[in-house]
Each structure stands twice: as structure tokens, then as C-alpha cells.
Amino acid sequence: MNCKFIGIALLVFITSSGCFLDNKIDQAKNNEIKPEAFNVYQAGITGFSGICPGKVKDTFLAVSDKTGIFEIDKVGKIIRTLPFSGSYDFEGITINPATNDVYLADEGQMKIYKLSNDEKSIELITDVRVTGGVINKGIEGLTYGNDTLYIVNQESPTIMIKYDLKSRKETARLAMNYVQFLSDIYYDGSDKTLWISDSKQQKFFHTDLNGNVIAFQSIPYIAKAEAITVDSVAKIAWIGCDETGFLYKVRLEI
Questions:
Q1: Inter-residue long-range contacts of 221-224, CB under 8 Å, 24+ positions, other chains counted
Q2: What pTM value is reported for the model?
Q3: Which whole number is the average pLDDT over 135-145?
Q4: CA-CA distance, 23 to 149, in Å (whole number)?
Q5: Helix (H) or strand (E) holding 215
Q6: What tens digit of pLDDT does each residue of 17-71 get?
Q7: Which residues of 38-145 form beta strands (DSSP E)?
Q8: What phi and psi values does residue 149 have, to the nearest 5 degrees?
Q9: Is residue 176 within 8 Å of 218, Cβ to Cβ?
Q10: Distance from first CA to last CA of the chain, Å, rounded?
Q11: What's the rounded Cα separation, in Å, for the pair 69 and 80?
Q12: Which of 227, 230, 222 is nearest to 240 (CA)?
């Protein structure tokens, strides 16, 4: 074979390979997580399982399935531990912003409770029955919106239940087949939509009130995202990690 031809062919191969590698590197750079994408704070809540806006501005109520109910600030500092005590498997917490009524989801008992005004006792709201449910993969989160509680069952099946507080009746039960672990849910009053976290896929979803997906965002840096609340006006999601006890302030990209 002509040496000149070999030289030209080799040069073309090297040049083409270099372009290919550069494209791959550029693509990898584009997929890197930018430092400004999130902030992380050590909340120190073992079994961080649920979060919602607090009764006081710039605070949250957070729940642990192991250690109780807490009021925290926006850098994860525990302001106080609520006086309620008892052996419960609380996985979700939500608040009615108009009345400050606080509701809790107990996975072990598959029950929804309301916290008393003095924060020392709870009142049963409803039992949640899920046919074919799996132990320790039951109701994992809830949120309040317009006199409705939106309750999510983690797995087998992944469903959302709507419970009307005025009539004290379940009004809908919807399959959420795109989710693997339904970990928490938040009602966004600014546009009457929902935000849903999936700790297994390391994503959260923005949906309509029937769980139909509008958009989703990946959060691969959060090991076990089991608590979510969102300030869509400020374009921030606040996410609690069950595995580490960290509170994440995540910039919304959707």
C-alpha cells in the first residue's frame, strides 16, 4: 500500500477520534452537577422522612420515623422538638396554612392523624387500606391542599389517594406507574399542582392534581430523598435525606 495513503488515513483516523473524544468530554462536562445547583445542611434528624412549611415564617416542620417531630430553620438547625411523644412510625407531615392544623402519616399503622393544638396528642383522621400492600413500604407521605389530603403509598402498589376532609371520605385512588418509590408529596398552592419525590430513581416530579407528569428533575446527589417541600416562586425545592439526615436546598430547573 502506498505510504502516503497510509499516512493520510492515519491522520484522518486520529483527527476523527480526537473530535469524538472531545465531544464525549464536552458532553460529560455538560452532565456534571454545578456547585450552585444545591446547598446542603446538616439537620441531624435521624430517619428524616417528611417536611412541610412551619407555623412560623422561614421555618419547617420535619418528621422522623425514629425520633419525633421537629421545627427547623432553613439551614437545618433544630429550633425545637415538639412536645408530642409516643411510639409511632411517622413518615409524612403536612399543614393547613390557613388554620395551622398539622397532619401526620403513620406507615406502621397505615393511619392518618391530626396533631392537637398544644402539640401533645393526636386524633385519628382515617385508616388507609391498601390491598396487596407490603410491610414497611406503605404510606410514605401526605400533603394538604384545599380541604384534601393527598396520600402516597410507597410501593406495591405505587398509588396516590385523595381524601376529602369535609366529607371524611376517599374521593380518588390513582396509579403512579412512573414512580418506583413514592417517597413524599407536596401541594403547591401557587399553581395548584403537586411535587412528588422518588427516592429510588433519585428524582422529583412536578405533576397535576391527578399525578400526570408535567416535568421531572434528577437529584443523584441525594442518597434517599424522602421529604420534599417546594417554593416554586423562589424556584427552590427543600429535600430531606432519610439516609444522612441532611437538608438540601435545590435550585429548580423545571
A1: 221/33, 221/38, 221/248, 222/246, 222/248, 224/183, 224/199
A2: 0.85
A3: 90
A4: 48
A5: strand 213-218
A6: 333 223 332 333 344 567 689 999 999 899 999 999 999 999 999 999 888 999 9
A7: 38-42, 48-53, 59-64, 68-73, 78-81, 90-95, 102-106, 111-115, 122-127, 139-145
A8: -100, 125
A9: no
A10: 57
A11: 9
A12: 227
Reference 37, options 223, 224, 217, 226; nearest CA is 217
Nearest residue to 204 via CA among 167, 175, 232, 245: 232
CB neighbourhood size of 143 (10 A): 27
Which three three-digit cell numbers place residue 178? 412512573
Question: Alpha-carbon distance 218 to 233, whole Å?
Answer: 20
CA distance 97 to 112: 18
Per DSSP (E only), the strands in 129-175 are 139-145, 148-153, 159-164, 169-175
Q: List, for residues 93-115, the tens digit of each pLDDT value.
A: 999 999 999 999 999 999 999 99
